[in-house]
Amino acid sequence: MFEKNNRVYRFTKTSSLKDAESEIDVCGAASRAGLFPMKGMPEYFEDTRILKITMENMDGDLAKLKSMSGTDMRELRNAVITLVEQFNNLGFCHGDLDNGNNIMYKDLGDNKYRLYLIDFTRSTKRNNSCRNLDFTKSMSYFKQVTRPNKIINKKFIVGNARRFSPIKNVGTPTSNPGTPRMLMF
Predict the structure, then answer these.
(1) Which residue has the higher pLDDT, 22 or 69?
(2) Are residues 71 and 150 in contact, defined by beta-carbon separation less than 8 angstroms?
(3) Which fold has domain 2-160+170-182?
(4) Does residue 142 or residue 121 have the better pLDDT?
(5) For residues 127 and 111, what is the distance between their CA atoms, to the nearest angstrom?
(6) Would you state the pLDDT for residue 78?
(7) Domain boundaries in the chain?
(8) What is the pTM for the complete model shown?
(9) 124: which of 30, 35, 36, 172 is 20 to 30 A away, CA to CA?
(10) In angstroms, rounded to a whole number, what is the distance separating the alpha carbons of residues 178 and 47?
(11) Which residue, 33, 28, 29, 32, is CA-closest to 53?
């Protein structure tokens, strides 16, 4: 990942155009639902099979949020459950939620934090075991839940449906090597 101008650029080496399109489909659905902080169109460089996704810069991941003084783990856990449920209801399984680094937050001030999912490289279409897999992985992060001595009233908000508008194809493929291809979702 690379950060510049309050945006984060994530570069992924895909094994094929189909894999890039699959990840873009998931990013688009999650972005339209307000669960992924994508900015602009993803770009795919056919000659190197690199997928570039631009996101809003976040303030930290689940580990950082969990370690903050006064965080009520039950409330945070319930917000993560809601986030994962909403993502699964889009028809996808994340598949990489076991260490908490793919659940990010944005500090909104006044002890309010908005939660998002990132990194859909391992995401697949939803199947019967998907929900259990995502919940087992995300909840394993909360196995040692401890109550802080003093709970500060923090509010956790899942995604932001009005923030990220639906993205449409704004470019066309080009035959010029090294020129990014704008992919539809």
Answers:
(1) 22
(2) no
(3) Transferase(Phosphotransferase); domain 1 (1.10.510)
(4) 121
(5) 36
(6) 86
(7) 2-160+170-182
(8) 0.75
(9) 172
(10) 6
(11) 28
